[in-house]
Design goal:
The complex is a heterodimer. Chain A is an all-alpha fold. Chain A has a domain of about 240 residues. Chain A contains 16 helices and no strands. The longest helix of chain A is centred in the middle third of the chain and has 30 residues. Chain B has two domains: about 140 residues, Rossmann fold (3-Layer(aba) Sandwich); about 150 residues, 3-Layer(aba) Sandwich (Rossmann fold), CATH 3.40.50.2300. In chain B, about 45% of the residues lie in helices and about 20% in strands. Chain B is built from ten helices and twelve strands. In chain B, strand 6, helix 6 and strand 7 form a beta-alpha-beta unit. The longest helix of chain B has 19 residues. The chains are: A mainly alpha, B alpha/beta.
Chain lengths: ~375, ~325
């Protein structure tokens, strides 16, 4: 993967990320110290906030679910050599699909509505990714630029729709009316309750199972199918792909459609699972965080699962931290999250050489 | 007994503070954060004033994503907050859900209405102060052309724009109003350079007074007006001091008073649920005249504004209100 310092697998995927995480937390601790709070207490609050009770675990997993979808979206495109920055917009428009089905078919049976919502989320998300994909494949317009632009277009479109068309009449807030009862993704507290397990109420819902399934499907697709193979070949060497009879243009479009569909599923978790209405800016930056999640997870579904969990914990633990420590405001929490991204994503090789030297010395 | 005396004295000394600690107010700010120089900051000033007068600090939280609203509100309620003030219309649905779950906790919602027995809803008639600003703009304009720069294109801001237009038309129906919204994303609240560009383009078309309802973006609008030697009108907080001699007036929205009043009423036990509409009559909105803009507001202008203010309160002038479709 990089020059110098080969690590055994367990160290590459287990130890190195942990060391990076520890370094990020250490630096955050110093900052917390500087603003006059105890770093140790802050860490305890954060961990307890993320995993300390059933409802905090629920929230952590709820946020993690968002990141699994957007992380997978980035990873699939990345394997085809495409840097999809448009997860945010694709998730936003995907949510529009989810929401329109929820509004239109809310009175029907959940067995019909929920699959329809998932399908609509995928289709809308994919459709939003299609235009940049087509532009990249046919016109060579750079996907990074076009997908970023499409985030803004998505935002403008959704604001227009929510302010002028979908808004529930007679209210200030640009939100649609609530979905019907059939369009509600069952909450985990009810699902587990039926199985006789008591679990506190939180937005944690069945969409998390969908996220797990998506992980499995993405893995199967990328490493166990011909199309996945073609996609990875295009990502690594488009010329070789052409030589092998694979069309990079087609593959680009397929990869982006899949990517958009995965991002679109975020709407299932946020809208069908938690908010039960369409509202402004519900992806809340999860599409962008997905990039960090995918980078940290080495673009592998298992890694993405783990890094999603970490980011879910940072979100939920961070919110608890600023709740309990008046001096730690939300900007501090963003700083801590940023440090984690910096150490685990951008500077992941910082400790690789010393670690390799250390392990080498120990084994000799 | 003698040994107990200091203890008793200590207890007596502590007693008031113990009682003070029994009252635990909480406030939840919206996306903008409490230092947005505008709406949320005004709420935060109310909190500060309450703290100064009573020594009781409110627990505060700034929302970062939509799912946090209910979560944080519930936590405040569960941990024994006496009153929870939710700032901003986006919190309405969270208040509706959580207030039902905690019927003993008092909720005060600013800028939206939720009809529950333990919720006080405070809304402002922004159109009334915007109307007066429109009048002031039309009276001050020499070109007969005035501008409006909104933040994000949402019903609330259209409400400002409509009131402003009506005010301009009330003075001079032939006057032209240029209206621009900065954007359609929440980023539109925090983009001073874009605000300045929009103001400059309106000046280029002949406007010589511009009113902003754009949060931190408005800072750029006012800067552009000051640079061009033209006039601007501030919004939400009193912004006359920002560029003395260039800021004609400010449309005031007293969120600070609303928050302060909610806290102190809850403390005294006089807090009541229901809808409170704060307009010119209640001094919840208004226009500012102070030492910074004294020279810009002519006696004639002030007289006409005062007359219109009285007419709006008495119902002689009806200010149109934007209704969402």
């Amino acid at each position: 993967m990089s020059a110098g310092g080969r690590l055994p697998r367990w160290a590459e995927y287990g130890l190195l990320p942990l060391v990076n995480l520890a370094a990020a937390l250490l630096l955050s601790g110093i900052v917390v110290r500087l603003i006059g709070e105890s770093p140790w207490a802050a860490l305890k609050l954060m961990v307890a906030g993320a995993f300390g009770s059933q409802d905090s675990i629920g929230y952590t997993l709820f946020y993690a679910t968002d990141f699994v979808f957007t992380g997978l979206a980035v990873a699939v495109a990345f394997h085809a050599g495409l840097f999809n920055i448009g997860g945010e917009g694709q998730a936003y428009i995907g949510g529009l699909g989810v929401g329109l089905v929820g509004l239109a078919m809310g009175a029907w049976s959940a067995w019909v509505v929920i699959p329809a919502m998932i399908a609509a989320g995928c289709v809308f998300g994919a459709a939003w990714a299609f235009v940049p994909a087509w532009l990249q494949a046919r016109r060579g317009s750079h996907i990074v630029i076009t997908t970023i632009m499409f985030n803004f277009i998505a935002s403008a479109l959704m604001t227009y729709l929510l302010v002028n068309v979908l808004i529930r009449p007679g209210q200030q807030s640009p939100e649609s009316r609530e979905f019907g009862p059939g369009a509600v993704m069952p909450a985990m507290t009810d699902v587990l309750g039926r199985m006789g397990i008591k679990f506190a109420s939180s937005p944690f819902n069945l969409a998390s199972a969908l996220a797990l399934a998506a992980c499995l499907l993405v893995w199967l697709f990328l490493w166990r199918t011909r199309w996945g193979y073609a996609l990875r070949v295009v990502g690594q060497n488009p010329q070789a792909a052409v030589y092998a009879g694979i069309s990079p243009e087609r593959t680009t479009i397929v990869a982006m459609l899949l990517s958009g569909a995965l991002a679109g599923c975020l709407g299932v978790n946020e809208l069908a699972g938690s908010q039960h209405r369409i509202l402004l800016d519900f992806p809340g930056g999860a599409g962008i965080v997905g990039i960090a999640v995918a980078l940290m997870g080495r673009n592998h579904p298992l890694g993405i699962l783990a890094s999603s969990l970490l980011f879910g914990a940072l979100y939920q633990g961070g919110s608890q931290l600023s709740f309990d420590m008046p001096h730690v405001n939300r900007d501090m929490v963003i700083l801590i999250q940023g440090l984690v991204i910096l150490f685990c994503g951008a500077m992941e090789n910082l400790f690789r050489r010393p670690l390799a030297a250390l392990l080498g010395a120990a084994s000799r | 007994m003698k040994r107990l005396l200091p203890l008793l004295a200590l207890m007596a000394a502590l007693a008031p503070s113990v009682r003070a600690a029994d009252f635990s107010p909480a406030i939840i700010y919206d996306f903008g954060g409490k230092f947005d120089r505008s709406f949320n900051q005004s709420a935060s000033e109310g909190v500060q004033r309450f703290k100064k007068e009573t020594g009781i600090a409110a627990r505060e939280f700034e929302i970062q994503n939509a799912s946090q609203r209910e979560q944080i509100m519930r936590q405040f309620a569960r941990r024994g907050a006496s009153i929870i003030v939710a700032v901003g219309f986006t919190q309405a649905s969270a208040v509706e859900t959580v207030a039902k779950e905690y019927p003993d906790v008092k909720f005060t919602l600013v800028d939206a209405v939720v009809d529950l027995p333990n919720v006080e809803s405070i809304v402002f008639r922004e159109q009334e102060s915007s109307f007066l600003c429109g009048m002031a703009a039309a009276l001050a304009s020499k070109t007969g052309k005035v501008g409006f720069v909104g933040g994000m294109d949402i019903p609330l801001i259209r409400k400002f724009a409509l009131g402003y237009r009506a005010g301009v038309a009330y003075v001079n129906p032939k006057d032209e109003v240029f209206e621009n919204m900065t954007g359609t994303t929440p980023a539109a609240w925090t983009n001073p350079s874009e605000g300045a560009e929009l103001a400059k383009s309106q000046f280029g078309r002949g406007a010589d007074v511009v009113f902003h309802a754009a949060g931190a973006t408005g800072v750029g609008v006012m800067q552009a007006a000051a640079d061009a030697g033209l006039l601007s009108i501030g919004c939400d907080s009193n912004q006359d001091y920002l560029h003395p001699g260039s800021v004609l007036t400010s449309a005031l929205k007293r969120v600070d008073v609303a928050v302060y009043t909610a806290f102190s009423e809850a403390r005294k036990g006089t807090w009541r649920p229901g809808v409170k509409v704060l307009g010119l009559a209640e001094e919840g909105v208004g226009v500012s005249i102070d030492e910074f803009n004294r020279k810009l507001v002519s006696p004639d202008m002030e007289a006409r504004l005062n007359q219109a203010r009285a007419d709006i309160i008495s119902g002689k002038i009806t200010v149109p209100e934007y209704k969402s479709p």
